[in-house]
Design brief:
Number of helices: 5
CATH architecture of the largest domain: Roll
Order of helices and strands: EHEEHHHEEHEEE
Number of domains: 2
Structural class: alpha+beta
CATH topology of the largest domain: CBS-domain
Helix content: 25-40%
Largest sheet: 3 strands, mixed
Number of strands: 8
CATH class of the largest domain: Alpha Beta
């Protein structure tokens, strides 16, 4: 299992509850991101604000337009489990939380990057495959001696 902590983004763009909507829009555009966590004064994740929230909801501040239903994962959650959560809940990002404090963010693009740049390679025959989970056996030789390696995308 590959834990989320090995894949997550740690330099996370966040917003305060009182961040004006205009500032959120400018930040999302300038950072080329689609959303981010909204933090309370005491450092708790209290919401998620997205580009869709900015242009589809009425309000002056992050607290007025954010989604209050926040789904989180722990740093030790497997990337495969987190990916299923992103797809199943139809969300783009999940805060990674340890002992009530956010330590990172896992987005669909983080999962896609992991998938595109890593591969599971058989140490016996050299066959490889991409995936979020370690294969039980090599498809070619049935070996269980398989390791994860960085790979060039598309190869």
């Amino acid at each position: 299992m590959i834990p989320v902590k090995d894949v997550m983004t740690t330099n996370v763009v966040t917003f305060r509850e009182d961040t004006p909507v205009e500032e959120i829009a400018l930040t999302l555009t300038s950072k080329r991101i689609t959303g981010g966590p909204v933090m309370s004064a005491d450092g708790q994740v209290v919401g998620i604000v997205s580009e869709t929230d900015v242009f589809s909801k009425k309000g002056k501040f992050a607290r007025d337009i954010m989604s209050q239903h926040v789904i989180t994962v722990s740093p030790d959650t497997g990337i495969d489990e987190a990916a299923r959560l992103l797809v199943g809940e139809r969300i783009r990002r999940v805060p990674v939380v340890r002992r009530g404090k956010m330590v990172g963010l896992l987005s669909r693009s983080d999962v896609l990057d992991f998938f595109a740049t890593t591969r599971w390679t058989c140490n016996v025959c050299g066959r490889w495959e991409r995936g979020l989970e370690r294969p039980e056996r090599c498809f070619s030789c049935s070996s269980t001696d398989i390791h994860l390696e960085r790979a060039d995308p598309g190869h």
